[in-house]
Protein backbone atom coordinates (compact mmCIF):
# COMPACT_ATOMS: atom_id res chain seq x y z
CA UNK A 1 0.00 0.00 0.00
CA UNK A 2 2.97 2.35 0.43
CA UNK A 3 2.68 3.69 -3.13
CA UNK A 4 -0.84 4.92 -2.29
CA UNK A 5 0.22 6.88 0.81
CA UNK A 6 0.98 10.59 0.57
CA UNK A 7 3.19 12.28 3.16
CA UNK A 8 2.30 15.44 5.08
CA UNK A 9 4.04 17.81 2.66
CA UNK A 10 2.43 16.20 -0.36
CA UNK A 11 -0.98 16.44 1.33
CA UNK A 12 -0.31 20.12 2.04
CA UNK A 13 0.33 20.70 -1.67
CA UNK A 14 -2.84 18.81 -2.61
CA UNK A 15 -4.82 20.82 -0.05
CA UNK A 16 -3.58 24.15 -1.43
CA UNK A 17 -4.42 23.02 -4.96
CA UNK A 18 -7.82 21.90 -3.74
CA UNK A 19 -8.59 25.41 -2.50
CA UNK A 20 -7.89 26.78 -5.96
CA UNK A 21 -10.00 24.10 -7.62
CA UNK A 22 -12.89 24.85 -5.25
CA UNK A 23 -12.69 28.55 -6.10
CA UNK A 24 -12.83 27.78 -9.83
CA UNK A 25 -15.86 25.52 -9.44
CA UNK A 26 -17.65 28.12 -7.30
CA UNK A 27 -16.98 30.84 -9.87
CA UNK A 28 -18.28 28.65 -12.69
CA UNK A 29 -21.31 27.68 -10.61
CA UNK A 30 -22.26 31.32 -10.09
CA UNK A 31 -22.47 31.79 -13.85
CA UNK A 32 -24.89 28.92 -14.44
CA UNK A 33 -28.28 30.22 -15.57
CA UNK A 34 -30.62 29.87 -18.55
CA UNK A 35 -29.09 31.08 -21.80
CA UNK A 36 -25.46 30.59 -20.75
CA UNK A 37 -23.11 29.06 -23.31
CA UNK A 38 -21.01 26.21 -21.93
CA UNK A 39 -18.03 27.47 -23.94
CA UNK A 40 -18.08 30.61 -21.78
CA UNK A 41 -17.93 28.49 -18.63
CA UNK A 42 -14.96 26.63 -20.11
CA UNK A 43 -13.19 29.92 -20.92
CA UNK A 44 -13.69 31.18 -17.36
CA UNK A 45 -12.33 27.99 -15.81
CA UNK A 46 -9.30 27.91 -18.13
CA UNK A 47 -8.53 31.58 -17.41
CA UNK A 48 -8.65 31.04 -13.65
CA UNK A 49 -6.50 27.90 -13.85
CA UNK A 50 -3.91 29.68 -15.99
CA UNK A 51 -3.78 32.63 -13.60
CA UNK A 52 -3.23 30.23 -10.70
CA UNK A 53 -0.35 28.47 -12.44
CA UNK A 54 -2.33 25.26 -12.90
CA UNK A 55 -2.77 22.78 -15.74
CA UNK A 56 -6.25 21.39 -16.53
CA UNK A 57 -6.05 17.66 -15.86
CA UNK A 58 -8.79 16.56 -18.28
CA UNK A 59 -7.95 18.70 -21.32
CA UNK A 60 -6.43 16.41 -23.99
CA UNK A 61 -6.83 13.41 -21.64
CA UNK A 62 -6.77 10.12 -23.55
CA UNK A 63 -10.18 8.43 -23.65
CA UNK A 64 -8.79 5.44 -25.55
CA UNK A 65 -9.08 4.56 -29.20
CA UNK A 66 -7.15 7.64 -30.25
CA UNK A 67 -9.80 9.96 -28.74
CA UNK A 68 -8.76 12.83 -26.45
CA UNK A 69 -11.11 14.82 -24.24
CA UNK A 70 -11.23 18.41 -25.57
CA UNK A 71 -11.92 20.54 -22.47
CA UNK A 72 -10.93 21.45 -18.93
CA UNK A 73 -14.53 21.07 -17.79
CA UNK A 74 -16.66 17.98 -18.15
CA UNK A 75 -20.12 19.51 -18.51
CA UNK A 76 -22.80 16.82 -18.39
CA UNK A 77 -26.42 17.89 -18.87
CA UNK A 78 -29.58 16.01 -17.77
CA UNK A 79 -29.17 12.38 -18.91
CA UNK A 80 -25.41 12.73 -19.38
CA UNK A 81 -23.71 11.02 -16.46
CA UNK A 82 -20.11 12.17 -17.05
CA UNK A 83 -17.71 13.24 -19.80
CA UNK A 84 -20.07 15.75 -21.41
CA UNK A 85 -18.24 18.38 -23.46
CA UNK A 86 -18.05 22.13 -22.90
CA UNK A 87 -17.00 23.01 -26.44
CA UNK A 88 -18.28 23.64 -29.00
CA UNK A 89 -20.66 25.57 -26.83
CA UNK A 90 -24.09 24.36 -25.77
CA UNK A 91 -26.81 26.61 -24.38
CA UNK A 92 -28.20 25.84 -20.92
CA UNK A 93 -32.00 25.91 -20.60
CA UNK A 94 -34.24 26.47 -17.60
CA UNK A 95 -35.09 23.09 -16.10
CA UNK A 96 -31.74 21.51 -16.96
CA UNK A 97 -29.39 20.08 -14.37
CA UNK A 98 -25.71 20.39 -15.20
CA UNK A 99 -22.75 18.54 -13.71
CA UNK A 100 -19.47 20.46 -13.67
CA UNK A 101 -16.53 18.09 -13.17
CA UNK A 102 -12.98 19.39 -13.20
CA UNK A 103 -9.48 18.26 -12.31
CA UNK A 104 -6.26 20.21 -12.04
CA UNK A 105 -2.51 19.81 -11.63
CA UNK A 106 -0.88 22.45 -9.39
CA UNK A 107 1.66 24.02 -9.05
CA UNK A 108 3.31 23.53 -12.41
CA UNK A 109 6.34 25.79 -11.94
CA UNK A 110 9.39 25.66 -9.67
CA UNK A 111 9.05 29.30 -8.60
CA UNK A 112 5.68 28.69 -6.94
CA UNK A 113 6.95 25.52 -5.30
CA UNK A 114 9.96 27.34 -3.87
CA UNK A 115 7.90 30.32 -2.71
CA UNK A 116 5.42 28.10 -0.84
CA UNK A 117 7.99 25.44 0.19
CA UNK A 118 6.02 22.72 -1.59
CA UNK A 119 7.43 19.37 -2.74
CA UNK A 120 7.68 18.34 -6.38
CA UNK A 121 5.61 15.41 -7.58
CA UNK A 122 8.09 12.96 -9.16
CA UNK A 123 5.27 11.18 -11.01
CA UNK A 124 4.43 14.17 -13.25
CA UNK A 125 6.63 15.99 -15.76
CA UNK A 126 5.40 19.37 -14.49
CA UNK A 127 5.76 18.34 -10.85
CA UNK A 128 2.32 19.40 -9.64
CA UNK A 129 -0.19 17.44 -7.59
CA UNK A 130 -3.71 16.56 -8.73
CA UNK A 131 -7.13 17.35 -7.30
CA UNK A 132 -10.59 16.49 -8.63
CA UNK A 133 -14.10 17.64 -7.74
CA UNK A 134 -17.58 18.10 -9.16
CA UNK A 135 -21.05 19.39 -8.36
CA UNK A 136 -24.39 19.30 -10.15
CA UNK A 137 -26.30 22.57 -10.45
CA UNK A 138 -29.93 23.41 -11.25
CA UNK A 139 -30.49 25.74 -14.19
CA UNK A 140 -33.33 28.18 -13.53
CA UNK A 141 -36.50 26.50 -12.26
CA UNK A 142 -36.12 22.72 -12.17
CA UNK A 143 -38.59 19.94 -11.40
CA UNK A 144 -39.25 18.53 -7.96
CA UNK A 145 -37.71 15.28 -9.20
CA UNK A 146 -34.51 17.07 -10.22
CA UNK A 147 -34.25 18.91 -6.89
CA UNK A 148 -34.69 15.65 -4.99
CA UNK A 149 -32.06 13.87 -7.10
CA UNK A 150 -29.53 16.63 -6.43
CA UNK A 151 -30.25 16.55 -2.70
CA UNK A 152 -29.96 12.77 -2.37
CA UNK A 153 -26.80 12.59 -4.48
CA UNK A 154 -25.17 15.30 -2.37
CA UNK A 155 -26.19 13.37 0.74
CA UNK A 156 -24.65 10.20 -0.72
CA UNK A 157 -21.32 12.01 -0.99
CA UNK A 158 -21.61 13.48 2.51
CA UNK A 159 -22.51 10.13 4.09
CA UNK A 160 -19.70 8.39 2.26
CA UNK A 161 -17.15 10.96 3.40
CA UNK A 162 -18.35 10.75 7.01
CA UNK A 163 -17.81 6.98 6.94
CA UNK A 164 -14.16 7.17 5.86
CA UNK A 165 -11.53 6.27 8.45
CA UNK A 166 -8.49 4.01 8.73
CA UNK A 167 -9.47 0.35 8.83
CA UNK A 168 -12.64 0.83 6.76
CA UNK A 169 -13.04 -1.51 3.81
CA UNK A 170 -13.57 0.27 0.49
CA UNK A 171 -16.63 -1.92 -0.10
CA UNK A 172 -18.19 -0.67 3.14
CA UNK A 173 -17.83 2.90 1.89
CA UNK A 174 -19.59 1.84 -1.29
CA UNK A 175 -22.38 0.18 0.66
CA UNK A 176 -23.05 3.39 2.63
CA UNK A 177 -23.50 5.32 -0.62
CA UNK A 178 -25.52 2.58 -2.34
CA UNK A 179 -27.95 2.09 0.54
CA UNK A 180 -28.77 5.80 0.79
CA UNK A 181 -29.40 6.09 -2.95
CA UNK A 182 -31.42 2.89 -3.28
CA UNK A 183 -33.47 3.65 -0.17
CA UNK A 184 -34.76 6.66 -2.13
CA UNK A 185 -35.43 4.66 -5.29
CA UNK A 186 -32.37 5.72 -7.30
CA UNK A 187 -29.90 3.75 -9.39
CA UNK A 188 -26.18 3.79 -8.52
CA UNK A 189 -23.95 3.72 -11.60
CA UNK A 190 -21.80 0.55 -11.50
CA UNK A 191 -19.54 0.96 -14.52
CA UNK A 192 -17.89 4.16 -13.25
CA UNK A 193 -16.26 4.64 -9.85
CA UNK A 194 -14.14 7.07 -7.87
CA UNK A 195 -10.39 6.68 -7.65
CA UNK A 196 -7.17 7.54 -5.96
CA UNK A 197 -5.74 10.93 -6.87
CA UNK A 198 -2.75 13.13 -6.09
CA UNK A 199 0.28 11.83 -7.95
CA UNK A 200 -1.85 11.31 -11.07
CA UNK A 201 -5.31 12.41 -12.16
CA UNK A 202 -6.48 8.81 -11.79
CA UNK A 203 -4.67 6.21 -9.71
CA UNK A 204 -5.41 3.25 -7.43
CA UNK A 205 -7.52 2.40 -5.55
CA UNK A 206 -10.93 2.17 -7.21
CA UNK A 207 -13.44 3.91 -4.91
CA UNK A 208 -16.73 2.10 -5.32
CA UNK A 209 -20.16 3.70 -4.89
CA UNK A 210 -21.72 0.28 -4.30
CA UNK A 211 -21.00 -2.78 -2.19
CA UNK A 212 -18.48 -5.34 -3.39
CA UNK A 213 -17.71 -8.83 -2.10
CA UNK A 214 -15.63 -9.02 1.08
CA UNK A 215 -13.08 -11.24 -0.65
CA UNK A 216 -12.84 -9.08 -3.77
CA UNK A 217 -9.12 -8.21 -4.22
CA UNK A 218 -10.14 -4.58 -4.76
CA UNK A 219 -11.86 -4.47 -1.36
CA UNK A 220 -8.82 -2.88 0.26
CA UNK A 221 -8.57 -1.49 3.77
CA UNK A 222 -8.17 2.29 4.00
CA UNK A 223 -5.01 3.68 5.60
CA UNK A 224 -4.07 7.15 6.82
CA UNK A 225 -2.45 9.14 4.00
CA UNK A 226 -4.55 7.72 1.18
CA UNK A 227 -5.98 10.47 -1.04
CA UNK A 228 -9.27 9.58 -2.71
CA UNK A 229 -11.72 11.13 -5.15
CA UNK A 230 -15.13 10.09 -3.83
CA UNK A 231 -17.79 10.66 -6.51
CA UNK A 232 -21.24 9.06 -6.41
CA UNK A 233 -23.07 9.09 -9.74
CA UNK A 234 -26.79 8.59 -9.15
CA UNK A 235 -29.62 8.12 -11.68
CA UNK A 236 -33.36 8.61 -11.35
CA UNK A 237 -33.99 5.28 -13.07
CA UNK A 238 -31.76 2.37 -13.94
CA UNK A 239 -28.11 2.31 -12.94
CA UNK A 240 -27.23 1.15 -16.45
CA UNK A 241 -25.46 3.49 -18.85
CA UNK A 242 -24.50 3.79 -22.51
CA UNK A 243 -21.84 5.57 -24.54
CA UNK A 244 -22.92 8.44 -26.77
CA UNK A 245 -22.43 7.19 -30.33
CA UNK A 246 -21.70 10.70 -31.56
CA UNK A 247 -18.41 11.42 -29.80
CA UNK A 248 -17.83 7.87 -28.45
CA UNK A 249 -16.99 8.98 -24.89
CA UNK A 250 -19.83 10.92 -23.24
CA UNK A 251 -21.66 8.56 -20.86
CA UNK A 252 -25.48 8.72 -20.67
CA UNK A 253 -28.18 6.95 -18.70
CA UNK A 254 -29.53 3.96 -20.59
CA UNK A 255 -33.17 4.94 -20.04
CA UNK A 256 -32.81 8.68 -20.64
CA UNK A 257 -33.41 9.54 -16.98
CA UNK A 258 -31.63 12.31 -15.11
CA UNK A 259 -28.22 11.78 -13.52
CA UNK A 260 -26.39 13.76 -10.81
CA UNK A 261 -22.78 13.69 -9.66
CA UNK A 262 -20.96 15.23 -6.68
CA UNK A 263 -17.28 14.75 -5.83
CA UNK A 264 -14.57 15.81 -3.40
CA UNK A 265 -10.91 14.93 -3.01
CA UNK A 266 -10.31 13.69 0.54
CA UNK A 267 -7.41 12.33 2.58
CA UNK A 268 -7.77 9.54 5.12
CA UNK A 269 -6.50 10.84 8.48
CA UNK A 270 -5.60 9.06 11.71
CA UNK A 271 -9.14 9.55 13.04
CA UNK A 272 -11.33 9.93 9.96
CA UNK A 273 -10.83 12.01 6.84
CA UNK A 274 -10.36 15.60 5.67
CA UNK A 275 -11.89 17.16 2.56
CA UNK A 276 -9.05 18.71 0.54
CA UNK A 277 -11.19 20.50 -2.08
CA UNK A 278 -12.52 23.25 0.18
CA UNK A 279 -11.76 26.96 0.27
Characterize this entry briefly.
The protein is α+β, with helices and mostly antiparallel strands and 279 residues long. It has helices at 8-30, 38-51, 110-116, 144-163, 170-183; strands at residues 55-56, 62-64, 67-68, 73-77, 80-82, 97-106, 129-138, 187-188, 194-196, 203-207, 227-230, 233-235, 241-243, 251-253, 259-261, 264-268, 273-275. Helix 1 packs antiparallel against helix 2 (38-51).
CATH topology: Creatine Amidinohydrolase
Helix content: 25-40%
Mean pLDDT: 97
Principal-axes geometry comes out as globular
Structural class: alpha+beta
In what order do the strands lie side by side in the largest sheet?
A: 10-9-11-16-17
| Second CATH tier, the architecture | Alpha-Beta Complex
How large is the radius of gyration?
Answer: 18 Å
End-to-end span in angstroms? 29 Å
Kindly estimate the percentage of residues that lie in beta strands according to DSSP. 15-25%
How would you characterize the largest beta sheet? 5 strands, antiparallel
CATH superfamily: Creatinase/methionine aminopeptidase superfamily
Question: What attributes characterize this protein structure?
Answer:
four-stranded antiparallel β-sheet, Creatine Amidinohydrolase, alpha+beta, five-stranded antiparallel β-sheet
Amino acid sequence: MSNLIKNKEEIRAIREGGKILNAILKAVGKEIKPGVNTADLEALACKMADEAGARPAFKNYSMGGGIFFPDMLCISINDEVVHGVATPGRILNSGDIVDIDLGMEWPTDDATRQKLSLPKNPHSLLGGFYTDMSATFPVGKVSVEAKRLLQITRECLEKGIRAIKPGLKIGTLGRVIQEHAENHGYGVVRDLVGHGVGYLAHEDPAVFNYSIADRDPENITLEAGMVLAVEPMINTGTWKIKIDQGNKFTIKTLDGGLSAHFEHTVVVTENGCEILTLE
